[in-house]
């Protein structure tokens, strides 16, 4: 039922970026074999644990087959090459040059399988003067331009905060997954003559790709966009406002019609008739007065009360949800964005649904099993898929 059913993917990844890419591919139906070191993926040691097992890995490893290999050994490398010969695509996120040092560089992999698509995810890319520098997600945010923008305007005593998740790893993983599907489609469109290729994705350029119109603005006018806090400098009123219960309400009232509805809802209809606020450009130029009026109204109500009032007026708004709000919200539950999954290692756990829908495929059908134990599928993969040894034999 899933669109990537039949696509075979080998993951030589750890931590976040490559495993996130292959999780997306697995959610879409691909058969993903995740190669872990004998001690397991380092991410199994991150976050909270239950019954001695990683809670995070239940999601990060879902829909994947886990095998263990020591890639520093000749036997482990040989098995990896056999898996590469089986696969349509390989996704890895070692530091540049590490695959080559293991004897598993693209040339060797393409000797084993000329049609193999190889996606390489790294901090700075496979070339350039910074290729050999170590990097994690925070470095992608910093160098890609995002962290500069997350500061509060005028605040100099605290560093600009990260967004709370490993956004650059996730972005690179999404781009890698998109590139893998594209490259496989292009290869297969060429028929039997189609060859594999090498894809180069990095954390810095993944974040940099989100910088909207900032680069042409700098090139033409020398403009450098500065932090804007919760506001949007080019749309007003759009901001996040304090409420009586200490929570916050995000409001997007920037179109002319919505602005009128917003002003009526907060009891200030006269502002909608004021020529200083006639257009979005006018409102941006005089936004401080509008923000003050909206904040005065929200401060007299809880976030839920203010949200309900503006929703009745058809003004786009939302409380700032934490994970409890997401898990308990009826919309999340009705669309199965939050689903209960039975995990043999953990019991009943909550999983986020895949972020895409296909007609006739219920979201629950896309989560076929949670993250397995390290090496759980050694026998199935090496014994049955690759025809090595008999049933039950463990390799590693």
TrEMBL record:
An example molecular function term from Gene Ontology annotations: CoA-transferase activity
InterPro entries from the UniProt entry: CoA-transferase_III_domain, CoA-Trfase_fam_III, CoA-Trfase_III_dom3_sf, CoA-Trfase_III_dom_1_sf
Transferase found in the keyword field: yes
Pfam family, one: CoA_transf_3
This protein's UniProt keywords: Transferase
PANTHER family: BLL6097 PROTEIN (PTHR48207:SF4), SUCCINATE--HYDROXYMETHYLGLUTARATE COA-TRANSFERASE (PTHR48207)
Protein's name according to its UniProt entry: CoA transferase
Lineage: Bacteria, Pseudomonadati, Pseudomonadota, Alphaproteobacteria, Acetobacterales
């Amino acid at each position: 039922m899933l669109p990537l059913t039949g696509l075979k993917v080998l993951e030589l990844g750890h931590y976040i970026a490559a495993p996130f890419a292959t999780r997306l591919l697995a959610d879409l139906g691909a058969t993903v074999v995740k190669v872990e070191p004998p001690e397991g993926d380092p991410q199994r040691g991150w976050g909270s644990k239950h019954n001695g097992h990683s809670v995070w890995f239940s999601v990060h490893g879902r829909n994947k087959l886990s095998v263990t290999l020591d890639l520093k050994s000749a036997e482990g490398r040989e098995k990896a090459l056999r898996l590469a010969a089986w696969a349509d695509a390989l996704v890895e996120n070692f530091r540049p040059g590490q695959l080559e040092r293991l004897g598993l560089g693209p040339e060797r992999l393409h000797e084993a399988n000329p049609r193999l698509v190889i996606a390489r995810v790294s901090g700075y890319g496979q070339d350039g003067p910074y290729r050999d520098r170590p990097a994690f997600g925070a470095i992608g945010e910093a160098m890609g331009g995002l962290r500069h923008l997350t500061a509060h305007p005028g605040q100099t005593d605290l560093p600009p905060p990260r967004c709370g998740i490993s956004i650059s790893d996730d972005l690179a993983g999404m781009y890698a997954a998109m590139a893998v599907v594209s490259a496989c489609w292009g290869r297969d469109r060429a028929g039997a003559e189609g060859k594999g290729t090498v894809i180069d994705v990095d954390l810095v350029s993944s974040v940099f790709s989100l910088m909207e119109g900032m680069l042409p603005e700098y090139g033409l006018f020398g403009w450098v966009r500065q932090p804007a806090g919760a506001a949007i400098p080019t749309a007003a009123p759009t901001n996040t406002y304090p409420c009586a219960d200490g929570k916050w309400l995000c409001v997007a009232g920037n179109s002319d019609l919505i602005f009128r509805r917003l002003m009526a809802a907060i009891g200030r209809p006269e502002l909608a008739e004021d020529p200083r606020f006639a257009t979005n450009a006018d409102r941006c130029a005089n936004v401080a007065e509008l923000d003050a009026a909206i904040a005065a109204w929200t401060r007299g109500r809880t976030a839920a009360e203010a949200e309900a009032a503006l929703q009745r007026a058809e003004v786009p708004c939302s409380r700032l949800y934490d994970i409890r709000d997401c898990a308990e919200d009826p919309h999340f539950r009705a669309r199965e964005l939050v689903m209960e999954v039975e995990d043999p290692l953990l019991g009943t756990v909550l999983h986020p649904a895949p972020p895409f829908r296909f007609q006739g495929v219920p979201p629950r059908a896309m989560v076929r099993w949670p993250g397995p134990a390290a090496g759980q599928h050694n026998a199935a993969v090496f014994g049955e898929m690759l025809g090595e040894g008999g049933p039950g034999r463990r390799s590693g």
